[in-house]
Write a structure and sequence with these properties.
Layout: H1 2-21, H2 25-47, H3 50-67, H4 77-94, H5 104-107, H6 135-146, H7 150-161, H8 166-173, H9 177-208
Helix pairs in contact: 1-2, 2-3, 2-4, 3-4, 4-8, 6-9, 7-9, 8-9
């Protein structure tokens, strides 16, 4: 079903791109309608700044208008749009002072000689739907996500936040599917360890009420 939906969206995009290249401005308006929110969402989830995300969105839409002829159709149009959005957002982030990221290896679960985790970490992720995600909780989660190294963070956001398929993320980032899965796994382990203590305390407070 998801494959069929992706195929349908790709075909619709191809029609709009072809019509826009032929000078149909209504086709561009439809492209904007399809992608404006997606561009903003991805940029905001990376930079966490509304003004920056709005500026990036306008920049990307302008790039699509001016450089649509450079799109050759070797990949899905949506992948091209996401790549432009990532590049524009990273340029915006690099122009600002950035705090250094924590090394992901510092917070990954330690393994013994047999390759098993030496420490037991509560898998709170399976119970997240039962948690009341108040402002404090969302802020805590976001701070943890912000500490992810760039390579793992972008995979986590595209896959788990934006809800794109592993195959789609692979195409956008020009990575193999195993590489995407590996980075996503590392990101999830990082966040699980980073947030385990917080959710244990959260659960304790909830049970006392």
């Amino acid at each position: 079903m998801a494959f069929t939906q992706d195929k349908l969206e790709r075909e619709e995009d191809e029609i709009l791109v072809r019509e826009f290249k032929e000078g149909n401005l209504e086709a561009y308006d439809k492209i904007v309608e399809r992608y404006q929110k997606k561009i903003y969402s991805l940029s905001f989830n990376l930079c966490r700044n509304q003004m920056d995300a709005q500026d990036v969105t306008q920049e990307v839409l302008l790039t699509l208008f001016r450089k649509i002829e450079t799109f050759q159709g070797k990949s899905a149009f949506s992948s091209w749009v996401y790549r432009i959005t990532l590049n524009a957002t990273y340029m915006r982030l690099r122009s600002k002072k950035k705090e250094p990221n924590v090394s992901i290896d510092d917070l990954m679960p330690s393994l013994n000689g047999a390759g098993y985790q030496q420490e037991k970490i509560q898998d709170w992720s399976e119970d997240t739907e039962s948690l009341l995600f108040d402002n404090e909780t969302r802020e805590t989660i976001q701070k943890a996500v912000d500490q992810l190294p760039e390579k793992e963070k972008v995979v986590f956001i595209l896959r788990d936040v934006e809800g794109l398929s592993t195959e789609k993320v692979s195409g956008i980032l020009d990575l193999t599917i195993p590489a995407v899965k590996s980075r996503l796994h590392r990101a999830r382990l990082f966040l699980r360890k980073k947030l385990s203590n917080y959710f244990e305390e959260f659960q304790f407070r909830r049970e006392k009420k």
